[in-house]
Amino acid sequence: MYDLGDLLVGFIFVAFTMLWWNAQGVKQIALRSTRDHCKKMNVQLLDDGVALKGFWFKRNKNGDLCLWRSYNFEFTSTGNERYSGQVIMLGRFVEKIHMDAYRVNE
To answer: ∠ at Cα 76 (68, 71), nearest 5°?
Structure first.
């Protein structure tokens, strides 16, 4: 039969899986938003990805406690230089996208 320890391990496994699944969804939202922003700014997203830099708890405009995440990405405007950028997520929403100053290719 199952004892309390088995139930606890099962609960921890399910909770961890749900958190991981949610984190992957937020990362996909950040990546899609970054792609759209790079396209709008006429630059190329390099490595086709974003990398989690850090996370913390922060309150949103409604006062609800959400997970704040910071993702880094790299882009190029000319094809020669690499520049850094950052996308900030609060919960499942993009709070800000910041891009370093870059050379405009005319």
So the answer is: 10
Domain count, the chain: 1
Flag whether 33 is in a domain: yes
Contact by Cβ (8 Å): 51, 73: yes
Whether 106 is covered by a domain: the verdict is: no
Query: pTM to 2 decimals?
Result: 0.85
Q: Which domain holds residue 43?
A: 4-99
DSSP string, the chain: ---HHHHHHHHHHHHHHHHHHHHHHHHHHHHHHHHHHHHHTT-EEEEEEEEEEEEEEEE-TTS-EEEEEEEEEEEESSSS--EEEEEEEETTEEEEEEE-------
pLDDT (tens digit, 9 = 90+) per residue, 59-104? 999 999 999 999 999 999 988 899 999 999 999 999 999 999 998 8
Tell me how far apart the alpha carbons of residues 1 and 105 are, in angstroms, rounded to a whole number. Answer: 68
